[in-house]
Every structure is written in C-alpha cells, then in structure tokens.
Amino acid sequence: MDKPIVNRVSNSPLITINLEKIRFEGTRCFFDLKNILDKGVILRENKIRDYVKNHDWTQYSSQFVAVGCSSEAILPSWSKLLIAASLKSYARKIVIGDLEQLETVLFESAINQLDFTKYINKSIIIKGCSDPSIPDSAYGFLINKLQGVAKKISYGEACSSVPLWKSNK
Prior knowledge:
Layout: H1 8-11, E1 15-17, H2 19-22, E2 28-32, H3 45-54, E3 64-68, H4 77-87, E4 93-96, H5 99-112, E5 123-127, H6 136-146, E6 152-157, E7 160-166
C-alpha cells in the first residue's frame, strides 16, 4: 500500500510573513526637482514659485510621492518642502527622498500596523528573495518587531529557511 503524500509544510505550526502582502497598494512616483531647474542644476526662486502656482497637482491624487532631485544640483531645503507642501492636499503620502526611501517609510508604517500578538511564542518564517523592490530596511523593521515576541525567526521558504533568531525562553 502506498502512503498518501502529506504536505508537512502546510501542516506545520510555522507562520510565514510575506512582506509583499502587507505592502500598501497604490501608485508610487518620483517628483524630480531637476525638471524645474534651469539647465537641470540652477534653482531660480521665481521660476519654482511660478511652477508651484501653475502646476496641475491633481495628477498626484491618492499617490505615494517621493520628492527629490536626480541632478547634482545643491538645493536649499525649502525647495523640496515647497513641493511637499503643494502635494499635501493630493498625495496619500509624501517623502523627501527617493523611491527607496518612500518604500521604506511605507513599509515601516505597514509593519507598525500589524497585530504582533498572533506571533507570540510562534515559529516565524519571513518570506524572502521574492520581490527586489522590498527594501532591506523593511526586513529589519519586521525582525525588530518580532524579536521578543516570537519563539523562533527564520528567513526564506519553509523548505529551505535560514535561522535568524531564537528566544532563550
């Protein structure tokens, strides 16, 4: 008699956390101040103020926006803040920086909203190697929250995980 195939992974007490599933849904965009600068490097206050006054900000409605500059220009802080202030009524979230910094802030917020009580004394696998757009910092935020709550934390897949931390309790 053949024994039935048993999926030991699905029957195990391991809990897998997949950061892809807690990512905030929505469009991300980079507002590049370079496009407002003369020759991509020179800031003219009157030009940026005219831009802010005449720009159609509604195109950023409900988006996650990173405000930065891709050129080598040295800009005063107020220039990015002026853009951020103009976006405030439209964007879901605004970050001064690049798209990776935006993603880091969004993941930190998403992780802080998780209910960690369901992970108390559990063996956790942080699913990894799946989406390169998830910043390493997101994994750092998650493991910091899990330590002291979980019994054991691993990284990878249930079939081939790397142990990261184990409680001394």
